[in-house]
Write a structure and sequence with these properties.
With 230 residues, this protein is an alpha+beta fold. It has a single domain, classed as Beta Polymerase, domain 2, CATH 3.30.460. The protein contains seven helices and five strands. The protein has a five-stranded mixed β-sheet with strand order 1-2-5-4-3. A hairpin with a 4-residue loop joins strand 4 and strand 5. Helix 1 crosses helix 3. The longest helix has 38 residues. The protein is flat and about 75 Å long. It starts with a helix and ends with a helix.
């Protein structure tokens, strides 16, 4: 099984970059240049988020952002996704068909912070929103909750400007905790009891969602008490 998976990955990489030395070097150069552009797009969006967070902090408001993480998809993951979509496994195809090569994960303390951050980000006039998926209001069947935005941001290079797509996932600390552990358990589980584990993970997700709601209610109570006593 493991040997078969390794062979499939090797075949994918050959499709992606070619076997001929000259072709390989050319495609590697093209790929690295494209990844540089995605990294630049990540920096653009991260800077916007950090400025928004700093502004609210300066105004004396509570910071809606706990942390910001980013990642670029690995070449093998990119090739696998293109194959699954039935698209050509080429560098050009990456730019044309994939929206999540560049990813940013924003971790917020409370649910309402998620919507505040999303609203402030997409209100900026150089941001173009391509798609929004609200997995908080409509969780995935496995219990996954998060707020996803596919956006396009202009990146300025020395001689030209290019719009680049970035996927922004915004979730609470609790949602991120569950998603990280679910990912680990899902891909490391060789048990025959898969259905039972999936059910228990779903139950955990529901408990965590209830905790998020309760924590937000407590936040409101504390704020109301402070306002009444001031």
């Amino acid at each position: 099984m493991e040997k078969t998976q390794k062979a499939n990955k090797t075949e994918l990489m050959r499709d992606f970059f070619g076997e001929d030395d000259e072709v390989f070097l050319d495609r590697i150069t093209q790929f690295n240049q494209l990844m540089m552009k995605y990294n630049s797009a990540i920096r653009e969006v991260k800077t916007k988020l950090e400025i928004l967070n700093d502004e609210l902090s300066f105004k004396g408001e509570e910071n809606p952002i706990e942390s910001i993480q980013s990642r670029i998809k690995r070449p093998i993951s990119i090739a696998q996704k293109l194959r699954k979509m039935g698209k050509p496994i080429t560098v050009e195809s990456v730019f044309e068909n994939l929206n999540d090569v560049a990813g940013i994960r924003v971790i917020c303390p409370f649910i309402e912070d998620i919507y505040q951050v999303a609203e402030m980000l997409i209100a900026q006039d150089d941001i173009k929103v391509l798609a929004i998926k609200d997995y908080i209001q409509s969780p995935k069947p496995n219990g996954y909750r998060s707020y996803h935005i596919i956006l396009e941001v202009p990146v300025f290079f020395s001689r030209y400007k290019q719009p680049m797509r970035v996927e922004v996932q915004i979730r609470t600390v609790a949602m991120d905790f569950w998603a990280s552990l679910e990912h680990q358990l899902k891909y490391k589980n060789d048990s025959v009891d898969t259905a039972q584990i999936a059910q228990e993970l779903k139950e955990c997700a529901d408990v965590i969602a209830q905790t998020d709601v309760k924590m937000q209610q407590l936040r409101h109570r504390i704020h109301n008490n402070l306002s009444n006593n001031s």
